[in-house]
């Protein structure tokens, strides 16, 4: 038996319960991974609130990424070993908010020795998402101007840093004057920073001024309601708005004719699993991510380490923030003797 966070009914922290769950032995091409650090990502918060892909499931364990150690091998597993440090992203049935999981080897990523468990846990999901956005969805080239909302968030920071590595002109938004210097130097390395107060949509003129009136090629919007229409006004002709969440509320209804009238714009709502499906792609993206981290091109600041058994107390606070910071869940150290009933 292992402890796992279970969602019995949707709607918030009061519906999360830490329970003992039976863990089966790994099957063919599967391994058991004992978690050491668990990523806390925006899609996980959506799942807990009943707004994600599991919204209609009666009982499930949320969690889309984690890092741990292989503790048992199933049949047919040749390229992994007991004791190996691995991470994973988007397992078939989620379930990372637990002490341990049974996983197919196709979703595993070996973790380099120079990265801690906690660093890897906060890097993997947003890092692979950033790689997907900047390399697959809309490849960023030297000199491209882009706008990244909420660069103080975990995902926003990594998008900005990776885009800077690709020699883009990165404009980041923050919600407070206190975050401007951090966005320029410490957490994102933005070329320019715009302060956008919570609920404010008046930033397009400043972005246009910073781009000599041309606008940006891409906007990465992690906020939603208050920034969506203003983001469209920031775009250059044939630009793309990439919607990556709604921490500030759902985006307003959009008339497609407005996209044509504003310069043949496009709106994308990408899901990582639709762009990165195969193990070769996962390993390719992870290798680049780890190399950039080792070179100091992508840095992470872990805002908080949260014991897994207190996640229900943290959920309400986190879902009210417009910036989801880089937080990591720390599971209790399980007794291997209690893994199986």
UniProtKB/TrEMBL annotation:
InterPro entries: ADH-like_C, ADH-like_N, ER, GroES-like_sf, NAD(P)-bd_dom_sf, QOR-like. GO terms for molecular function: mRNA 3'-UTR AU-rich region binding; NADPH binding; quinone reductase (NADPH) activity. Residues 11-329 form the Enoyl reductase (ER) domain. Coiled coil: none annotated. Keywords: NADP, Oxidoreductase. GO terms for cellular component: cytosol. Pfam families: ADH_N, ADH_zinc_N. PANTHER family: QUINONE OXIDOREDUCTASE PIG3-RELATED, QUINONE OXIDOREDUCTASE-RELATED. This is Enoyl reductase (ER) domain-containing protein.
């Amino acid at each position: 038996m292992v402890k796992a966070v279970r969602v019995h009914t949707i709607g918030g922290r009061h519906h999360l319960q830490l329970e003992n769950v039976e863990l089966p032995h790994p099957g063919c091409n599967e391994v058991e991974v004992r978690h050491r650090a668990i990523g806390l990502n925006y899609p996980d918060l959506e799942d807990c609130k009943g707004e994600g892909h599991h919204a209609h499931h009666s009982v499930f364990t949320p969690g889309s990424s984690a890092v741990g150690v292989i503790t048992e091998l199933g049949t047919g597993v040749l390229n992994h070993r007991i004791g190996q440090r691995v991470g994973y992203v988007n397992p078939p049935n989620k379930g990372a908010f637990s002490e341990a999981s049974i996983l197919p080897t196709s979703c595993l990523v070996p973790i380099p020795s120079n990265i801690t468990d906690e660093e890897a846990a906060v890097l993997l999901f947003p890092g692979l998402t950033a790689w997907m956005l900047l390399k697959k969805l809309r490849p960023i080239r030297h000199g491209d101007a882009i706008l990244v909302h909420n660069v103080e968030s975990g995902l926003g920071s990594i998008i900005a840093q990776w885009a800077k590595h690709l020699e883009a002109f990165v404009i980041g938004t923050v919600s407070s004057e206190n975050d401007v210097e951090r966005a320029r130097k410490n957490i994102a390395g933005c070329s320019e920073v715009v302060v956008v107060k919570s609920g404010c949509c008046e930033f397009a003129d400043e972005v246009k001024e910073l781009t000599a009136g041309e606008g940006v090629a891409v906007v990465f919007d992690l906020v939603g309601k208050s920034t969506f229409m203003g983001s469209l006004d920031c775009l250059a002709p044939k630009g793309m708005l990439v919607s990556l969440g709604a921490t500030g509320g759902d985006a307003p209804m959009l008339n497609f004719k407005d996209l044509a009238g504003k310069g043949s714009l496009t709106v994308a709502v990408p899901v990582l699993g639709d762009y990165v499906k195969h193990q070769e792609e996962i390993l390719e993206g992870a290798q680049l991510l780890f190399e950039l981290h080792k070179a100091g091109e992508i840095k992470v600041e872990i805002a908080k380490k949260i014991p897994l058994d207190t996640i229900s107390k943290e959920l309400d606070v986190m879902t009210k923030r417009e910036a989801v910071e880089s937080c990591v869940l720390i599971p209790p150290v399980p007794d291997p003797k209690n893994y199986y009933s």
